[in-house]
Amino acid sequence: RWIKFEEKVEDGGERWSAPHIPALPLHSIFQLRTCLQKGMMFLGLDASSFKEIIDKVLSGQPEESELQPEVRERLTALLLRQPRHQHTKSLLQLLAELGLSPCRSRHGALPRLGGEQRLHPECPAAASLSFQLRNRFKKKLPPGTEAAHVAVGEVEFLEKPFTAFIRLRRGVSLGSLAEVTLLSRFLFILMGPRDKVKAYHEVGRAMATLLTDELFQRVAWQAEHREDLIAGMDTFLDEMTVLPPRKWDPSARIPPPSCLSSPHRRTTGYPPDRQSHGNGDMTAARDKAGMGHLHSREELERTGRLFGGLLQDIRRKAPWYGSDFSDALHPQCLSAVLYIYLATVTNAITFGGMLGDATTNMQGVLESFLGTAFAGSIFCLFSGQPLTILSSTGPVLVFERLLFSFSQDHSLDYLEFRLWIGLWVAFFGMVLVGTEASHLVQYFTRFTEEGFCALISLIFIYDSLKKMLSLADAFPINWQYRLDNVTSYSCICNLSSPGEPKWARGGSELSMREPSLLPALSPQPPATLAGLSRTQCLGQGGHLLGTSCQYVPDVTLISFLLFGGTFLSCTMLKHFRSSRYFPAGVRKLVSDFATVLAILASCAVDAALALETPKLLIPSELKPTNPARGWIVFPFGANPWWVCLVSAVPAVLVTILIFMDQQITAVILNRREYKLEKGAGFHLDLLCVSLLMVVTSATGLPWYVSATVISLAHMESLRKESATSAPGEHPEFLGIR
């Protein structure tokens, strides 16, 4: 069968093969051309049933090639035989074959009728099963689909080939001739003796392939004479590519391409050599480039008035504001909420941990969680593009690290200095909004966008590797440890002062590794002795003596294993969408939640091993991670008065950083290829980010800006695709919900 692409019944006759591009023998196409030139042709035949079609075709034969009455009857009976269709077996069929179905035939087994499985007529599931099989297949077909039938075969009672190409005047339902109930318009019949025409099957495949070609379909619909069909076939031959024999495997199945050229492009008058040279079709390249850029976008047109662009964004957003809530009632949005929540949580944990290391927990995981929740909620409620997800990004992390280091070197209060920078950034952001500076976004090229995204990714990659390598300092690898020397390793707690002899405090030297030797080392009774841990020893003023006192488990090694395992498992689960295991829905679910599943799996391994790997520092109650700070940052008192003025200098750098980060993400999200219906809001988004800078700076929370990766994942989770797509054909992208 052919639905865009060819499918064959696999060996054993149990299922259809994967859709593939048909590979046709060149000789079969020329044989088909001969059949169309010499065979019977009916263009506009008026008939209402398959029997009427066969009768009119056989009665319309020329006198010189008219069949004998006996041969004609046998051919009619052969063509009118009940066809056998190859159904994909459902779970109910498989259970029925195993004898597990509650509905079975009277003899305890299901009768086999040719290649089709049928239930006993008395079984009430028979009708529903047949409906399920037909309906499930019909869902793949777009509305208005019609069927074409190709019947080829070798028979003994014919002396010469019988060929007929039929186009009905109107679509007619031909009963069970089709696999599903569809209107039929085209039929092709080729019957002949075994020693006259070879490879009937290949000729039929060539005819079916022609009928699935969009350009030949138009020709077949509009043809008035035999010559029109021949000309359409010659056009098909002009576009064919012939492969030499023995240079490839003809049995290899070519998978369908990810993107098909439109029939309109094929009808353009470009010579073949012009399309094959250079960097591809220049028209297609220009069209693709036009979709990705934002030239002549209404949202970026300058009004020439102060805050004119902002007012236009508000007017554009207002009519759609209510639909933002009503559209979210779709079930697809529920899965998107869960997916983005978990993705945002993992990002907040990652950034909070890195920011805590960079600022000695002046900002940590808890502040990252609170800031993400607050800034994200405000932005989604009042921004021009709520599909955008706010988060802390790599460039912001780098600036925070540099600012904290500068404050430490010059004895400045970090949070107060940061507050004034945030206030200046908010002021500069308002100036950019008022002067419609977002108009400059249209000059961002694809190179700028991809380069900035690469910078953000590289910063996080660098910081993660740097953090992992720093574990070797806190938990050094035991290069000198040898298993054969285990008897010489020991560590004892000496409670005496370093200058005091060991006998001055009898029994004060307690073994930490060999409790069985404690009685021999102390004159006190064993009941009064207790092994002291490292913490207890140091807490009582003692010190550790021995060759194994500095020994720690290989925490660095297991941390690297967990680090690499999380990344590799996440990558593997991300690509699980294209694997061959499980249904498509399960694969998509696993792929969407790959990051969360990978983190949970690694945390489970870490918990099972119960090693003292470094963990994130999170307070057990709602208070700042660093107890030396509060929730409100005061603008004066800790730093000199001139800091509020000097802060304008680094604020200019942060403003450029925020503007670039925010607007490049907005450009990527608002590309025409995403088919967004509600428009963008470049000025309104920048205003929300600027005002949020004031609040987050005053409360000591991280600064937030649009996160490219999470925002794209958000849009990906809200994709709308066509419900009907032929096997092997990618669903049509309809836009973003």
UniProtKB/TrEMBL annotation:
Record flagged with keyword Transport: yes
Pfam families, A to Z: Band_3_cyto, HCO3_cotransp
Membrane topology: Multi-pass membrane protein
Annotated InterPro entries: Band3_cytoplasmic_dom, HCO3_transpt-like_TM_dom, HCO3_transpt_euk, Na/HCO3_transpt, PTrfase/Anion_transptr
Bicarbonate transporter-like transmembrane domain location: 305-737
Family the entry assigns: Belongs to the anion exchanger (TC 2.A.31) family.
PANTHER family recorded: ANION EXCHANGE PROTEIN (PTHR11453), ANION EXCHANGE PROTEIN 4 (PTHR11453:SF52)
Name by which UniProt lists this protein: Anion exchange protein
Protein species of origin: Podargus strigoides (Tawny frogmouth)
